[in-house]
Amino acid sequence: MTSSVRVLVVDDDPLVRSALGLMLGGQADVEVVGEAADGRAGVALARELRPDVVLMDIRMPRLNGLDATQALRADASPPRVIVLTTFDADEHVLGAVAAGADGFLLKDTPPVQILDAIRTVAAGEPILSPSATRTLIDRVRTQSGDGRAAEAQQRLALLTDRERDVALAVGRGLSNAEIATCLHLSVPTVKAHVSRLFEKLGTTNRVQIAICVHDAGLS
């Protein structure tokens, strides 16, 4: 029998914690092992309980979700982290991209998609909702200039045609399985291409790839 995915919910809003707990508690393959109301407590609880996945709010007292994610990613065996945010004028959103989170979802994401994201991230595949990807890109748009565009184009020029196809698909917010279907590739092949994209583009997660694609004028 497959073990359940152990989830820790970190959010300063008790209603959000309650709603997520009720939603996840009804799943046979997901177990909520704890809740925390701020980032500092979330880091401590994650290190104590060793969950598979942490659902992490960004704006919280004592320690925000960005710093909490960075702290957990520095551990020897860190949990997967899915950042949940409303993107309401949040200055930490772009910083969260660099913090090493494995997933980014809006808080109004339908429950079934949140569950799918938890299962996907627990299986080792990063996940980004298309709406979250687009929102992040929109937030960078005002910062983009000729210099950023030229730099992004130079970085993408290092890619093979197939790697470029995969980069464009990542920029659309597609998962590895969806990219495999669209490009008629196996999932392991797509994963290998994504790993090479991280190396060639100097990125650490899929949102950074999407931003590079946008800066180059390809999205």
Task: Give descriptors for this structure.
11 helices, alpha/beta, 53% helix, 219 residues, Arc Repressor Mutant, subunit A, Rossmann fold, single chain
Q: What is the correct CATH architecture of the largest domain?
A: 3-Layer(aba) Sandwich
Topology as H/E string?
A: EHEHEHEHEHEHHHHHH
Quaternary structure classification:
single chain
Whole-angstrom Rg: 17 Å
The assigned structural class equals alpha/beta
Strand order of the largest sheet: 2-1-3-4-5-6
Q: At the third CATH level, what is the topology name of the largest domain?
A: Rossmann fold
Count of DSSP-assigned helices: 11
Helix content: 40-55%
Give the domain tally: 2
What's the mean pLDDT score?
Answer: 83
Overall geometry comes to: globular
Question: How many E strands?
Answer: 6
Question: How much strand content do the residues show?
Answer: 5-15%
Low-confidence stretches: none
> How far do the termini sit from each other?
43 Å
The largest sheet, given as strand count, sense and whether it forms a barrel, is: 6 strands, parallel
User: Briefly, what CATH class of the largest domain?
Assistant: Alpha Beta
CATH H level, superfamily name of the largest domain: Response regulator
Summarize the structure.
The chain is of the alpha/beta class and 219 residues long. The chain is 53% helix and 14% strand.
